[in-house]
Amino acid sequence: YWPRRVENRICGECKVPVKLSNHHTCLQYCQAVGRYCVSAAAAATAGDECSEEEEMSCHGHLEDGHAICECGARFLRGHYGSLSEFWLDEEEMQNRVREMVDNFGILEFQFYDAFEGFSRPPADDASRWKCAIQGRPVHRDAVEAAVREIHRLRGRSWP
């Protein structure tokens, strides 16, 4: 099932030419058909829909023309991942979220050991605290960076 293909073509077992105006990125296209994105490329010419001009990221956007999106295996329902190292910098947290989405199709994220206590959340002005269970450091900016990236990639998260 490959909707919105260019000229109804298929370029390989799981590789299809797609107008990205319908789905902004190959990642979003593959997610819409229940799969993860393996690779993406800008198509070379309008006459040869399966000829690749330039490799691009699964997160890449095209202003014009179409992309060739290669999608991986189908997602498993109920598939989720955990984040637990909240002392990492913002960029590393965002990279970990993207890797989990790109490599494993994870769109559901559990934040493990991010609690300061069990009765209430940390104070609004607290930028750092220790996890109630293991005493591991938690940095608010790392948690917020992960939440922003999950939201940007259309995933969900919970503590």
Could you characterize the architecture of this molecule?
The chain is of the alpha/beta class and 159 residues long. Helix content is 22%, strand content 26%. A four-stranded antiparallel beta sheet has the order 1-4-2-3. A hairpin with an 8-residue loop joins strand 2 and strand 3. Helix 2 packs parallel to helix 3. The protein is elongated, with a radius of gyration of 19 Å. The two termini are 35 Å apart.
What's the N-to-C terminus distance?
A: 35 Å
Q: Helix-strand pattern, N to C? A: EHEEEEHEEEHE
- SSE-based structural type: alpha/beta
Portion of residues in helices? 10-25%
Please give the order of strands in the largest beta sheet: 1-4-2-3
Q: How is the main sheet built? A: 4 strands, antiparallel
Shape: elongated
Characteristic terms for this protein:
alpha/beta; single chain; 4-stranded antiparallel sheet; 3-stranded parallel sheet
